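Entry 14: structure prediction run for aldehyde dehydrogenase (NAD(+)). Input pasted below.
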Amino acid sequence: MAVFNSLHKTSTRFFVPTGRNSGKWGNVNRFSTAAAVEELIIPQVPITYTKHLINGQFVDADAASGKTFPTYDPRTGEVIARVAEGDAEDINRAVSAARKAFDEGPWPKMTAYERCQIILRFADLTWNNGKPYEQWATSELPTFVRLFRYYAADKIHGLTVPADGNYHVETLHEPIGVAGQIIPWNFPLLMFAWKVGPALACGNTVILKTAEQTPLTALYVAKAGLPPGVLNVVSGYGPTAGAALASHMDVDKLAFTGSTETGKVVLELAARSNLKPVILNLEGNLLSLGQCCCAGSRTFVHERIYDEFLEKAKARALKRVVGDPFIKGVEQGPQVCFASTLRQNIIDCVLSYHFCSFYSYYKATLECGGDRIGSKGFFVQPTVFSNVQRVGTVWINCFDVFDAAIPFGGYKMSGISREKGIYSLNNYLQVKAVVSPVKNPAWL
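Run finished. Output tokens:
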């Protein structure tokens, strides 16, 4: 994962993402990597799960069409495994299984406590987007466990409502039904928890469409042992599997994390089908090679220390340890593979497109870095821009503060609704008012 950072001096900003060849930006400090991309560690992780999980079973065939697609090791650009490529027929099968599990199965009829005992199995479980192993082991994995333990605690209850007249009024919070969920590639483990955890805790059944760049994580953790049809995982591409899920008439709720432009398409498909409600968590820095929609992309610095801070930030970027994410001490692994085919020139295309767009859109000045590292894999240099003319999310005197209980989401075109915390449970519940007459109530 690349890390974003930046600063601001009155009208001047400063940005640290990852890089693109700097030829068109004049004289810049050249990058000398602090750790070359050396001999790679081969993790002893057998890749067992590459097929769709439907109705509690990994299906025998690769997909209804028989197609598969490659998933890559971003350190080398080489294929790790071939994964079943789902399309509309696979989505239909998964939705049918989820519908039957919701309408006829025990899951929504269980007490919240009974469901929570099963959900805790996810917290007891626990490779391929390139982020440093230390970051994953010390941050993301504990957060994954924390999220499922948070949702596994029974937090679902209704209200008793005062009303005019001799009536007893209460509200019931009920599961919505079948939830379709589409997750991105940048945090495959956490996005699984953000989406699947609250939906299951509320008694819904789920069809999860994974990102084509990182399908293996969800297939591994989905084997927690839920009743058949409660959790279904389909791998595939957005225009086929994703579109089929968003437009399916038997899906009652939809959640999507990704770009704003794709979010608009998802929202339209949901509206044109059965007007299903949609949760959208959109963009931010997700598309600018920072690989994180909430990356801390700018630091505001007083003008008196701006020049000094800029020089120190550039020096720190040049010392940033880039290499195999499985090696201790590595701060930055490779970028995720941004396409599933034509990998020969993937990184060049990505760097060219995104850095040229960044330069032209933000009118930024490249200070250092701006190139790929080596000829294999998707490694790029830590890069510093200054004079960036826009700013987004702000942390004040802190950075990267998250918790299972803190709601997350954006305003305006950054999305709809909130994820994490009690608000994420509300996304997957519908409210029923129950009114009954009371003769001679004690409170009147």
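Notes: Residues 133-152 form the longest helix (20 residues). Will compare against the previous run tomorrow.
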